[in-house]
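# step 3/5: fold
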Amino acid sequence: MEVSYTPSFVRQYKSLPATLKEEIKEKILLFCRQPDHQALKVHKLNGKLKEQYSFSVSYKIRIVFWYTKTKPKEAILLAIGDHTVYN
C-alpha cells in the first residue's frame, strides 16, 4: 500500500509529542505492509465521513484516510488525532 499525506495531516502530525510520532510512524508502516492487520482496527466511517476510513494508532489516537479510486493500492491520510477528527 502506498500512502500520501494532505497538508492538514502533516500540520496535525507536527504538533504531536515526539514519543507519539514514533508510534504513529510504526502504525503507518504496518498499514503500508498489511492494511488489513487486526491491530489497526481499520473500519469504514459513517455519516458525513461515509467515503472515508479510519485506523487506530492507540486507544485514543486515530488516522482518517480514504482510498484513491485511480490507484487501487493507494491511500491518502487526511487527519490524525483523538476522536474529534471525526467532527
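# step 4/5: annotate
Strands lie at 2-5, 43-44, 53-56, 62-67, 74-81.
# step 5/5: archive (pending)
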